[in-house]
Amino acid sequence: MAQVTNFFVGANSGEGFRNLFSEMVDIEDTYDFMVLKGGPGVGKNTFMREIGRAMEEAGTAVEYLWCSGDPDSLDGVVLPELRCAVADGTSPHVIEPQYPAAVDRYVDLGRFYDLTAAKNAAEEVKTRTHAYKAAYVRAYHDLKAARQVELDAVASVAKSFDAERLDRRVRGIIARELRSRGDQSGRTTRRFLGSVTHKGCVWRFDSVDVLCPKVYEFADTWELAGGALARLHAAAAEKGWNTIVCPAPEDLSRIEHLLIPGLGLAFVTSCPGMDYGKKPYRRIRLDAMTETEGRSRLRFQTRMTALLREEAIDALKDAKRNHDALEAVYNPYVDFDGVRAQAALEAGRLLSYLK
């Protein structure tokens, strides 16, 4: 059975859309990278699902990269054993080939539009496009306000945090779990484990369980684990282990989750709205390492943050409704049989690389 994992390379935050698309693959070590072009409703998701399905049936590992705008739609598919990938290369995550044809290449799905028919729907297309973009602006305003309230609470709690106590735990974990693999430094891959979406907060902890049977959980309401995770990442890389670093969408410099597949070992952050929800190998309660004052103010800030994020989720729902309506305008004018035939052709090409 093929190994299947699920991550994101885009995320919604108070700073707007966060983008790791340039890190989807190491282009210097990639054999074939398809960059899909074509507008809404043209079948990019259909194409990528067909590629993923064919590769799963062939038994090769598949990494699905989901869309933060719609976590049921794909932004990309990576095939690590083949050193191949396919991605949506359109706005807001435009990708351009660096080594055209030799490594990466366009796949133009726009040719499957019925241009004459689509032009007759131009006014509705414009209306729906403006509406879904405006909804995203509202969502990001709400997420920014939520983050500002949250940061005030985080700063307040950090003042009483017993960092030395956590440091002792981390030193013990490094000594116990991170044996040396060799002289070479490990490679780091960055992915988001989840995002705020129109469905609420979606986190793909299933990928942690697929790759890492031993899980340390940091119970951390106030963003206290970042320094410890950075130390664990540095130690793993220094000892030669490849890692998957999952940064916080709100702060790309702060690690939220760290996976070391070669050791079957993961370190995850768990908090309200991002709950691991399973029994870990060890749970480290960072909230117990603080002496929190002003609890009534913290409760108020927590409620305000949650309310503002709910407003953002409502705006993302509005964006999704309008984007779905936009795709519905285009769908009758798309040759989906042609899209599937093109996907089958490209899947056959990929399967030939297995031989």
Please write out the topology.
Elements: E1 4-8, E2 10-13, E3 16-19, E4 32-37, H1 44-57, E5 62-66, E6 74-79, E7 84-88, E8 104-108, H2 115-119, H3 122-158, H4 163-177, E9 188-190, E10 194-197, E11 200-203, H5 205-211, E12 214-219, H6 226-238, E13 243-248, E14 251-260, E15 265-270, E16 282-285, H7 295-330, H8 336-352
Parallel strand pairs: 1-5, 4-7, 4-8, 9-13, 12-15, 12-16
Antiparallel strand pairs: 2-3, 5-6, 6-7, 10-11, 13-14, 14-15
Helix pairs in contact: 1-8, 3-7, 4-6
Let me know the number of strands.
Answer: 16
Radius of gyration: 22 Å
- Percent of residues in helices comes to 40-55%
Biggest sheet character:
6 strands, mixed
Oligomer: single chain
Decide which structural class fits the backbone: alpha/beta
- Principal-axes geometry comes out as flat
Total domain count = 2
Number of helices: 8
Q: List unreliable stretches of 5+ residues.
A: none
How far apart the termini lie comes to: 18 Å
The largest sheet has its strands arranged as: 1-5-6-7-4-8
Mean pLDDT over the residues: 96
User: What is the H/E string?
Assistant: EEEEHEEEEHHHEEEHEHEEEEHH
Query: Strand fraction band?
Result: 15-25%
